[in-house]
Write a structure and sequence with these properties.
Layout (H helix, E strand, L loop, with lengths): L1 E6 L2 E4 L4 E9 L1 E12 L6 E6 L5 E3 L7 E6 L4 E6 L8 E11 L6 E4 L3 E6 L1
Parallel strand pairs: 2-11
Antiparallel strand pairs: 1-3, 3-8, 4-5, 4-9, 5-6, 7-8, 9-10, 9-11
C-alpha cells in the first residue's frame, strides 16, 4: 500500500508564504510525476504545479512567479513553496504522485487527503 502524507497548510494573510510538503511511503518501486492540485468549495480541482522525476516543471498561469515546486527523489517527497499568497489561492491542496509499486507492477495514480490553505485579505 502507498500513502501520501501532506503537511504545511494553514491560515496566512495576503502577501505571506507557506511551504507544503508531501511524502510518499509504502510499496514503492519508483515515482514518476508528482504534483499539486487545489480545489475551492463548489469548484473543480485544478492543477497548480507539476514536476517530472528529472525536474521539469509546469505551473498554472495564476501561480507563475509566485509558487515553486520541487522534489527530493531520495525522500520520495514533493514540495510547494507558495509566496505572495492571494485570497484567490484559498482552497484544499492535494498532492499527487504516479507510483510504480514493487508488486504488482503497473503505474498507479495516488492522492493525498488534502491540506487546507486559507489566505485572508
Amino acid at each position: 500500500q502507498v500513502h501520501l502524507v501532506e503537511s504545511g497548510g494553514g491560515l496566512v494573510q495576503a502577501g505571506g508564504s507557506l511551504r507544503l510538503s508531501c511524502a510518499a511511503s509504502g510499496n514503492i518501486f519508483s515515482i514518476n510525476g508528482m504534483g499539486w492540485y487545489r480545489q475551492a468549495p463548489g469548484n473543480q480541482r485544478e492543477l497548480v504545479a507539476a514536476i517530472t522525476r528529472g525536474g521539469g516543471t509546469n505551473y498554472a498561469d495564476s501561480v507563475k512567479g509566485r509558487f515553486t515546486i520541487s522534489r527530493d527523489n531520495a525522500k520520495n517527497t514533493v514540495y510547494l513553496q507558495m509566496n505572495s499568497l492571494k485570497p484567490e489561492d484559498t482552497g484544499v491542496y492535494y498532492c499527487n504522485a504516479g507510483v510504480v509499486p514493487t508488486t504488482p507492477r503497473g503505474l498507479y495514480d495516488y492522492w493525498g487527503q488534502g491540506t487546507q490553505v486559507t489566505v485572508s485579505s
